[in-house]
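check these tokens.
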Amino acid sequence: MTSPGPTDDVATFDVVHSTRYIYESEVSASYGQVHLIPRDLPGQACIASAIKIDPEPADYRERIDFFGNRAAYFSIRQPHTRLTVTSTSRVGVRERRVPLPSGPSWEEVRDQLGAAETDAELDARPFTLESPLVGLSAAVEQYSAPSFLPDRPILECAADLCARIHAGFTYRPGSTSVTTGLDELIEGAEGVCQDFAQLAIGCFRSKGLAARYVSGYLETRAPPGRPRRQGADVSHAWVSVFVADVGWVDFDPTNNQFVTDGYIVTAWGRDYSDVPPLKGVIFTEGTAHELEVTVDVVPVRES
């Protein structure tokens, strides 16, 4: 595995992701799992990372999950009314080259996946199937059709699909939930990055192509002349499509662009349900809670 080396032109970021719950009633125990530690990848290195949990957990363990992501499990077995989970990481990211929208047609890539022979192709094939949050339907097939013209290069298809999602949907936090289906998303034409990534994934899969959900962070650059706002960043999501003889290529439908060096990969899976930043179970008589999430992605400036 190749990570940014000391002689590479590397951008370094400090990432702080904090999640705080305030419960209306006392919680007797909490059990959780997090996907908050950035991956080590070609072009990306997690230089340092730490997870801080308050109250102090009785048990904390890290593991590598089925998709190769770094996950952590914790349990808190003392009464509490607040829970805070803070992940702090320093990540080095080497400049990513944007591929040209050419190469094999989407039909060629589909057919090569169908006759998979290489390890990479075999590993990609499960990502052609439906998953818990990405179902295939007539509406998804119909939405995908204009982007996948006969004999069109697959990267051109991907770029067109991302542009259509970006132009045709309104980014509106709170308009959807983690259980919103693709048909409902298409009808409502509004959502967040999670929804747009899953719609793109559904479109690729409807054509027999392999696509996966990528979770991570995106540096937010302030407009010229204005200071950067702390806490303005959010956890982000985008889509990665498998291209025969090239590998995985990442696109961001929310921002209508290829993924560049301002992106930090935390985890990937079939859809959001495989890699939520934080999920778990609590034991309480209460039925309500307050939630506050802040994410800062800060470039580290050389002294």
